[in-house]
Input
Amino acid sequence: MPTFAEAKSIFDNTLGKSSTLAQLLVPVDGKSKLGILIRGANGKPLEEYFKWQFIYALIHSGLYAKDYVGVEIRFPKGNTSSAPLKLDGAIFDSMGWIQHYNDYWASRRAEDLQWLNDHLLAVLEFKRDDKEIERVFTGQVKPAMREKDPSDANVLGIYYDSGRLYLFYRRDGKYLRYDEAKNMKGTTSQVGDLSLHLPDPYNYIPNFDQLRLRINRPAAYDRSNRTIQDLDVITSISTVQLQTALSDVLRALDKHNLVNQRGYQILIQTFALKIFDEKRNEKHSRKKLEFYIKGDESQFSKIGEKPIQEFIARLKGIWSEAETQYHKILKECEIDWKNPNHVQVVVAICLAFQDYSFVRSSTSDLYQLVFYNFASAFKRDESAQFLTPLPVIDFLVKIVNPRDGETVFDPCCGIGDFLSLSFIHAQGKTEPLDDANIYGVDLDENMIMLATLNMLLNGDGEAKLFHKPDKGSILSKVGASNPPDLIELLPDHHAKGAWDNWPDNTKLRKFDVVLTNPPFGEDRAYRPRTFHDRQVIEMYETWDVADGDNLDLGVVFLENAYRSLKDEGRFGIVLSNSIASINRWQKIREWLMARMRIVALFDLPPNVFAETGVNTTLIVAYKPKQTELKRLNEKGYSVFVRDIQNVGYEKRTSKRNVFFNNLYRIDETTFEIVTDEEGNPLLDEDFTETVADFRDWALGQEATLQKLFLKEA
Output
């Protein structure tokens, strides 16, 4: 089954080639009509072209059967002497619409008109190159949506103009964008708050079942009989509704004195219960969702009251099934179910998120939002825990291209975004990644809990994620044992990088790919304060090479990444621009080039990492066999270098919550936001073009580089 965009293209190359429509797709005013003109005398598409392009794509993508759709639909106005309002198109929830429609206009029976009104799901409006979207919305789309009675009934409004799609939704008498992220003031948004400059991607069009469910959903409905398909997808963490939900949770944590380690763990464990509940329903649809709360349950005053005890029993039931599969997160219950403060926080989390699907929204930046907005109590700045923006991660993953069942490692994994995005991107490959081959280490247990959730959401929970306090992966390495575990380096045996020199049969696990954004910068340098600290850093060859009394942690993890690789393994690492450029680190760069084949250097603009303000460089390299590296260095080789100017986002704060706000590319002639073939607004970023240029460049490089970065099994 083609996508909407693919079906749209098929129309362009078949029926759309002619000046008239050669095939009737749906009834016109309830009748068959042929010979519809879709191109003008000059051969250019008319408004009718785009109408039928949309109808064709809607039907042939499988979103709607043609039996439910009609065009040129007339609805009478209140004054019988007035001309009827003509809808460019309409979608009904029953195939019987055509009979009722023709019967009404034949006999004007009120019952037929009422039937049509009751079964109307969506109204359609079409234009060609009309730039006045606000005028069209207020003058045509809204009046068309008003045809659905009563005035507070739900109805979808679709506006399609020369390939640009806008979805609207009337709910409780308010006219809003279907995508909540575009309603800048939530349900109180007026016309100027609807982000009318921003079109909708085609994949936002709900299918017949989704729309029928949403239109017919009562204001108050039974949450005890829901499946995952009944939940809303999170399209952006910047929606007013989601920002409000997060603020409510933060207030609950504050009110009940749980803005601390315990509160954070309660949050993570409650999230784990929700994810398990959704995934269980995905596998066993007859088992309805149990992560919900009823009105009387949320209004408890004493913990012993029957309604709240029913809620507690329901969540405990989820826990009992989940604890074996999610043992890393649920090994110890941080929720004291007899403590009203703990239960109030769980109630607040459930109220905030019960109507959203985490699983169906898994490629969103949900966990980045959790990190930013709930981890503040853990002093991110002091522990050098900094978030890597998703566009940067996505870019580096696409460049390094982990796939074909390779092992992937992040030695300071944080919330696991490099690992989860590696897994997601590889799913479309000939041989995807197995999340049992994904490894991460972090010194913060809270980050490992979030990383575990991240991998549970996107994989099947088999990723190997290790918490190691204090030195983290600087001292502790992943052993080659089965099952794998962390083992500490031995100062007496592993000085100056001799990490494979074990006194027994111990071996370290080596990886195909390392992707990481380590702490870096002068204020995060490794400064040995004790004899043990010095022993640890002296196991790094770069300590001697740099020859100083401290070492930038970026350099420490650069060596860590190198020594974690197999022969012909590769890495992508985010470092301070100074490590890649200033004289102080010249010897470190020489050390690296004597061991790795540098593949690419990408300079990022200032303030990409909003907390630091440090200029950053992405270094991509692979580890050739010694004979090949010698040959490459003697012969000389090319390095792909690019200065990234535009990253497609800016940091914003709303209601105490931090998020990254998208910046879009503007057409300099029309001043409209540029969209791709799928209708997606294009971000103002250089990453996509750079990936394509890098892959073209790689085709002219040595066979090993092509094999590692381009070819699939």
Summary: Residues 369-647+685-709 form a domain with the Rossmann fold fold (CATH 3.40.50.150).
